[in-house]
Amino acid sequence: MRESYHEELTSVVTDLVTMTDRVQTAVQDATRALLTTDLAAAEKVIGDDVVLDRLHDDLEQRCFSLLARQSPVAGELRTLVAALRMVADLARMGDLSAHIAKIARMRYPRGAVPESMQPNFQRMAVLASEMVEAAGRTLRERNVLDAEKMADHDEEIDELRTHQFRVLLDDSWNHGVEAAVDCALLGRYYERIADHAVLMGSRVIYIVTGLHPEGENWTIA
Amino acid sequence: MRESYHEELTSVVTDLVTMTDRVQTAVQDATRALLTTDLAAAEKVIGDDVVLDRLHDDLEQRCFSLLARQSPVAGELRTLVAALRMVADLARMGDLSAHIAKIARMRYPRGAVPESMQPNFQRMAVLASEMVEAAGRTLRERNVLDAEKMADHDEEIDELRTHQFRVLLDDSWNHGVEAAVDCALLGRYYERIADHAVLMGSRVIYIVTGLHPEGENWTIA
């Protein structure tokens, strides 16, 4: 039996929320791979990225199809346009998690992050994961306030990243070039995951209000 | 006098091409800032990024408005959906150029890239700039073959990046941690500019054929 238009639209949003859950798992698994040198977790994230890419292609196709067949207007058009962007955000967060897992795998059985830097990355990873979770909840509940709160988390991520550079570039850094390069790129990947979570929040605000949030916290760094 | 729907749609594409030209200039100026320690060029790229962001917001708004008012179908719907993504690609390439310029500014009056690495970055920058130019031409001329050729350029970028890591992480590297971290991030930024150019090419293929290109060269790394 053919689903009705509204059922199709609802199932796009439901599947976006499910995809967000999967991306959160990817971020958490990648972090476990990285900070506990868990090779199986690294392989899982890298393998699951293919599944996320397939989800992306399927959801994107359904959005296009709805746009083409139904010529939606107002709130429904906004939802579909926002869904197209969110599915791209989510695929990108999956890619970034796989990048993290690949660095973990490349350095195995050693750890990529020196012990002194682990608390910083641990905190960054918790924040990034919470932001992905908040993005999913925001989307599920259309809760604009939650979306705005995410920007604060993003600020702490920026501070952690600044701290990373201070440590990496200090004369007392004695872990060599490889660890420094790894940490610089890993920090970048977590930062970008957080940026995409913030963007997802801003897309929900757009669905609910029809407006794009203003202000520095919402621009892409 | 109010523009007709088709005139509005044509002017969106024309302005996307113009924005692509500006992004190419940003990539070139950022490279000059980086490789000839040209502080004025760095400031120009960083300042112009605000203009690119404004162009992005304006074009995005016009796409939304056309989608909402005209309920386009078939080729026109594809053009608008692709335009929304291209304008996001272009804004992102502008951000990445500004990131490059900021590293150049931060290290001024020293250069961020050691002399031995300059030919590698020079080549990477030429390829990235040519790819942005090809993306603009592809869009202007709806030339699918040109879009497919871009994937080859992207492969050379990947090889240059692999070479960078080999040099950075070799025991003979004697430029210290800061230069290594700078080079790793700079390489990442050029690589991402190239990725977005490839994506723009794939969006043109989508406009022309209605199909998303398949194959490894088209996935986002």
Please state the overall shape of chain A, judged from the principal axes of the Cα atoms. Answer: elongated
State the major sheet of chain A. Answer: none
CATH topology grouping of chain A:
Methane Monooxygenase Hydroxylase, Chain G, domain 1
Query: Which structural category do the helix and sheet elements of chain A fall into?
Result: mainly alpha
Describe the structure concisely.
The structure is a homodimer of 221-residue chains. Chain A is mainly α and 221 residues long.
General description of the model:
The structure is a homodimer of 221-residue chains. Chain A is mostly helical. Chain A has one domain (5-218): Methane Monooxygenase Hydroxylase, Chain G, domain 1 (Up-down Bundle). In chain A, 81% of the residues lie in helices and 0% in strands. Chain A contains six helices and no strands. In chain A, helix 4 (118-141) packs antiparallel against helix 5 (144-168). The first copy, chain A, is elongated and about 60 Å long. Chain A starts with a helix and ends in a 12-residue tail after the last helix. Chains A, B: One of its GO terms (cellular component) is cytoplasm. Chains A, B: Residues 17-103, 122-202 form the PhoU domain. Chains A, B: Keywords: Cytoplasm, Phosphate transport, Transport.
